[in-house]
Write a structure and sequence with these properties.
Layout (H helix, E strand, L loop, with lengths): L10 H13 L4 E5 L8 H16 L3 E5 L3 H10 L6 E3 L7
Parallel strand pairs: 1-2, 2-3
Length: 93
Protein backbone atom coordinates (compact mmCIF):
# COMPACT_ATOMS: atom_id res chain seq x y z
CA UNK A 1 0.00 0.00 0.00
CA UNK A 2 1.21 3.49 -0.82
CA UNK A 3 0.87 6.26 1.74
CA UNK A 4 1.28 9.99 1.55
CA UNK A 5 1.18 12.04 -1.64
CA UNK A 6 2.46 10.82 -4.97
CA UNK A 7 4.51 13.86 -5.87
CA UNK A 8 7.86 14.96 -7.26
CA UNK A 9 9.65 13.28 -4.37
CA UNK A 10 7.77 9.98 -4.24
CA UNK A 11 6.82 9.46 -7.90
CA UNK A 12 10.19 7.90 -8.87
CA UNK A 13 9.87 5.36 -6.04
CA UNK A 14 6.29 4.61 -7.08
CA UNK A 15 7.37 4.03 -10.70
CA UNK A 16 10.29 1.87 -9.59
CA UNK A 17 8.03 -0.32 -7.44
CA UNK A 18 5.60 -0.70 -10.35
CA UNK A 19 8.42 -1.60 -12.75
CA UNK A 20 9.60 -4.27 -10.31
CA UNK A 21 6.11 -5.78 -10.27
CA UNK A 22 5.88 -5.62 -14.05
CA UNK A 23 9.23 -7.36 -14.52
CA UNK A 24 7.61 -10.41 -13.00
CA UNK A 25 5.34 -10.60 -16.04
CA UNK A 26 2.32 -9.04 -14.37
CA UNK A 27 -0.33 -7.78 -16.79
CA UNK A 28 -2.76 -6.46 -14.19
CA UNK A 29 -1.86 -4.08 -11.43
CA UNK A 30 -4.04 -2.93 -8.52
CA UNK A 31 -2.81 0.23 -6.83
CA UNK A 32 -4.27 0.84 -3.37
CA UNK A 33 -4.62 4.61 -2.95
CA UNK A 34 -6.48 4.46 0.35
CA UNK A 35 -3.65 6.28 2.15
CA UNK A 36 -2.85 8.69 -0.72
CA UNK A 37 -4.48 12.07 -0.33
CA UNK A 38 -3.00 13.91 -3.28
CA UNK A 39 -1.38 13.27 -6.63
CA UNK A 40 0.65 16.05 -8.22
CA UNK A 41 1.54 16.44 -11.88
CA UNK A 42 4.59 14.22 -11.31
CA UNK A 43 2.38 11.60 -9.65
CA UNK A 44 -0.12 11.75 -12.49
CA UNK A 45 2.70 11.27 -14.97
CA UNK A 46 3.91 8.22 -12.98
CA UNK A 47 0.41 6.70 -13.03
CA UNK A 48 0.05 7.30 -16.78
CA UNK A 49 3.51 5.92 -17.61
CA UNK A 50 2.80 2.79 -15.58
CA UNK A 51 -0.57 2.41 -17.29
CA UNK A 52 1.05 2.76 -20.73
CA UNK A 53 3.49 -0.03 -19.89
CA UNK A 54 0.65 -2.29 -18.75
CA UNK A 55 -1.49 -1.46 -21.81
CA UNK A 56 1.39 -2.50 -24.10
CA UNK A 57 0.99 -5.94 -22.49
CA UNK A 58 -2.78 -5.84 -23.04
CA UNK A 59 -3.20 -5.53 -19.29
CA UNK A 60 -5.14 -3.25 -16.99
CA UNK A 61 -4.55 -1.06 -13.97
CA UNK A 62 -7.06 -0.65 -11.15
CA UNK A 63 -6.98 2.19 -8.68
CA UNK A 64 -8.42 1.15 -5.32
CA UNK A 65 -10.03 3.75 -3.05
CA UNK A 66 -8.76 6.91 -4.71
CA UNK A 67 -9.70 10.06 -2.83
CA UNK A 68 -12.26 12.42 -4.33
CA UNK A 69 -9.37 14.80 -5.06
CA UNK A 70 -7.60 12.14 -7.11
CA UNK A 71 -10.79 11.18 -8.96
CA UNK A 72 -11.42 14.85 -9.73
CA UNK A 73 -7.86 15.29 -11.02
CA UNK A 74 -8.23 12.28 -13.30
CA UNK A 75 -11.62 13.52 -14.51
CA UNK A 76 -10.40 17.07 -15.10
CA UNK A 77 -7.44 15.85 -17.14
CA UNK A 78 -9.49 13.34 -19.13
CA UNK A 79 -7.61 10.33 -17.77
CA UNK A 80 -10.36 8.92 -15.57
CA UNK A 81 -11.73 6.74 -18.36
CA UNK A 82 -8.34 5.02 -18.72
CA UNK A 83 -8.40 3.44 -15.27
CA UNK A 84 -10.60 0.92 -13.53
CA UNK A 85 -11.70 2.41 -10.20
CA UNK A 86 -12.78 0.33 -7.21
CA UNK A 87 -14.17 1.85 -4.03
CA UNK A 88 -14.00 -0.55 -1.11
CA UNK A 89 -17.12 -0.21 1.03
CA UNK A 90 -15.03 -1.18 4.08
CA UNK A 91 -12.80 1.88 3.59
CA UNK A 92 -12.11 3.81 6.77
CA UNK A 93 -12.68 7.54 6.44
Amino acid sequence: MISGPIDEESAPDFESACRTELKEGVTGLAVDLTEVGTVTEAGLRALIETLKTIKRRSGSMTLINPSQEIVSLLADTGFLILFSIVHDPQRQF
